[in-house]
Amino acid sequence: MIYKIKEKFWGFGDNFSITDTQGNECFYVKGKAFSWGDNLSFQDENRNEVAIIKQKLFTFMPKYQIFIDGELYAEIVKEWSWFNKKFTLDVPGPNDYTIEGNFWSHEFVFIRNNQPVATISKKHWAWTDSYSIDIQDNENHTAILMTCIVIDQVLHDDRNNSSD
After folding, report:
1. What are phi and psi of 116, to 5 degrees?
2. Tens digit of pLDDT for each residue in 18-45?
């Protein structure tokens, strides 16, 4: 299944729409404009909240937590590496994902059990951040899509901090 993530141009906070290949909205992400760290509501096509993504503050490397029904479901951590970007999506059980990518080209691969299961490609030359995500059918689409939003937030923070 292929999804498109597009950041909304106008609005307060970080807002994204996630559509399928036919352009039907599948999910919506609404960020709080004034909060300490990123605080995002992940919503279905009817704008019902499915999960909350919260940035954990005061950590050595960026860390985000996904809450479903008020319970911690998963953690996304940016791993330290010299040249490439690397993240871990820690989900319940032995099904963790490793996400490896290139900062300059904004291409990422999700790996589970040593097999690539999803890819992210950033569209360049757009007014807002836009991504194409190709996910294998038997994978956790919602968790992978939420991780894509987190990766965008981390890359955005990295760009802002490097311009200081």
Report:
1. -70, 130
2. 999 899 999 999 887 655 667 889 999 9
Contact 163, 23 (CB under 8 A): no
What Cα–Cα distance (Å) separates residue 51 from each residue in 48, 61, 105? 9, 23, 29
DSSP letters for the chain? -EEEEEE-SSSSS-EEEEE-TT--EEEEEEE-SS-SS-EEEEEETT--EEEEEEEEPS-SS-EEEEEETTEEEEEEEEEP-SSSEEEEEE-SSS--EEEEEETTTTEEEEEETTEEEEEEEEESS-SS-EEEEEE-TTS-HHHHHHHHHHHHHHHHHHHHHHT-
Query: What pTM value is reported for the model?
Result: 0.82
CB 40 within 8 A of CB 52: yes
Sign of the alpha-carbon dihedral angle for 14, 59, 56, 77: positive
User: How far apart (Å, rounded) are the C-alpha atoms in residues 155 and 150?
Assistant: 9
The CA dihedral of 120, 124, 129, 131, to the nearest 10 degrees, is -20
First to last CA, the chain: 39
